[in-house]
Amino acid sequence: MSTPYALPEVTLDEIKHLVSQRALDGETVLLNMGPQHPSTHGVLRLLLELDGETVVTCVPDIGFLHTGIEKNMEAKTYLKAEVMTDRLDYLNTVGNNLAYCLAVEKMIEVEIPPRAQAIRVILAELQRLASHLVWLGTSALDVAAMSVFLYAFREREIILDVLELVSGQRMMTTFIRPGGIWRDVPVEFDDAVRNILNTFPKRIDEYEDLLTKNPLFLDRTLGIGKMSLEEALSYGVTGSTLRGSGSDWDLRKKRPYSGYEQYDFEVPVATEGDVYARYLVRIREMRESLKIIEQALDKLPLGPVNSNDHKFVPPPRSELGTSMEALIHHFKLWTEGFDVPKGSVYAAVESPRGELGVFLESDGGPKPYRVHWRTPSFNNLEVLPLMAEGLLVADLVAIIGSVDIVLGDVDR
Amino acid sequence: MDKQFQAIVQMLEKDFGAEVSEFCGEVQAVLPAENLVAASQKLRDKFEFALLSTITATDYGLEESPRFHVVYIFNSLSKNLQLMVRVPVDGENSTIPTLTVVYKNANWRERELWDMFGITAEGHPDLRRILMPDDWDGYPLRKDYPLGYEEPQFTFNFEEIDLSKPKGEF
Q1: Which residue in the set A255, A346, A357 is minimally distant from B80, CB to CB?
Q2: Ranges of residues in chain A whose predicted pLDDT is under 70
Q3: How far is C-alpha B85 from the geometric centre of its chain's CA atoms?
């Protein structure tokens, strides 16, 4: 393919500044960590400059999982583009759907029924639990606590079973749709979630028994990867990683969406800003999530789960045989899609990793003109060199685990 | 508009020549590129916008002038405010001043901006491609960059496409 642009050429001189002069003199060792490395939690490549076992410089190299989702979404209607959102952060699919739907709903101004709001909250919190379980298992595995990994993944499967129950898919659910949710939850949903609520507090106690006061775990995490609040903010760090450094910034509390203001929960904060602080924050967050799920389930309202505005929400299947109008709406929605008013919005939700924002720009047509994902992992990864430099390679592995990145989220 | 925004809007309009509007409950300010660094410095220091959430851009097409809008999302944690700043950038010689002097996380976001749109951040310490390979040709998120696909093979173009397929030695 020929283009009007000049081919960029990268010379060695241009990237020499990434490492110190000592590396160029051969005094220190350059080591390539990843992209295929179990402790990088995906396809992250780190260029490490090592003095013995000490990290002198750490240069993250990302983009191995870049899938061009932002470009692809521009070519699809608003309903069809949503399917791609699941593929960004594959541990937080419900949250991705939610962020996207909130952005679309902000522009088309449909009203979401309370039952749909509550189900959204329950699923988003279940997803947060599942995501934190993956984080707990893998980051414990990184510091050589093998058994936690097995237990955490056992419990995660129970949550994925609930997602499968409501949507038919374990991970790529696309359950939340603009204007509501795909369909009402089945009758077994209540029992399945209650089962989680009954078993999980004990299970979280068990994880804490294994880790929280374990001297080996403390040795690997206490005082490692320190980050002050000012540093965290200037690097745009959000989520549990920021709260581990002493801020109580949580979008669920500060800018409530989907009815989070109705639920009583706390935002766990730790001030030390090290790997252990971030561990404590996430463990406590899992307990708070259970509290939110319980409250939402207890007062789950009855009623419709989708907006009645069939210009945006497909009419129920039962109406298609009897109502001409419903048939027209159905046809229009699945061929042309719905038009969104011209303008741009930014909607953000609190994902398990931080502020997950969607910048959505519309030109008034049925396809998004521009979608940008402000993914929390991207910002949280940028701060890695600051935390890792001067520490050991083994500590670097613990720090990568503690910032909880998902490479699908970083690279988009 | 939130009451706390009044002083900010006044400052942006008076000192930096911004045009402020509101859409779907969000405050958006269109700011000339030369005032960006000074304005964001003031937003951070005086109005406590400690968090730069993201930097991105929209391409309005080759014929439009200005061709791009670079979008900045600022967040104030202490005041719980969100502000969208849009900076119009021309298609020819598209440059913006770098924000790395104010916010450190502008580093990667501006690299992404250059990678995806070809908009140069002047004064950036390390402007390399970040998501695409270093030797990539073109800027993928521009509107004149085609969404790539593989042409399907039909009877009428079977040989033409067959010729371009890689032939392995078995």
Answers
A1: A255
A2: 1-10
A3: 11
User: ipTM value of the model?
Assistant: 0.87
Which residues have C-beta within 8 Å of that of residue B158, sequence separation ≥ 6?
A: none
Instruction: Report the 10 Å Cβ neighbour count for A90.
Output: 18
**With an 8 Å Cβ cutoff, is B59 touching chain A?**
yes
Q: How many of the other CB atoms lie within 10 Å of CB of A330?
A: 18
Q: Which of A251, A234, A119 is nearest to A186 (CA)?
A: A119
CATH 3.40.50.1460 is right for the domain spanning B5-164: no
Q: Which CATH superfamily is domain A69-308+337-374 in?
A: Cytochrome-c3 Hydrogenase, chain B (1.10.645.10)
DSSP string across A65-76: T---HHHHHTTS
Nearest CA of chain B to the CA of A323: how many Å? 34
Q: Is the Cα dihedral A307, A309, A311, A316 positive or negative?
A: positive
Task: Quick: pLDDT tens for A278-300.
Answer: 999 999 999 999 999 999 999 89
Alpha-carbon Rg for chain B in angstroms: 21
Instruction: Residue window 97-156, chain B: list those with CB within 8 Å of chain A.
Output: 103-105, 107-108, 116, 118, 126, 128-141, 145, 147
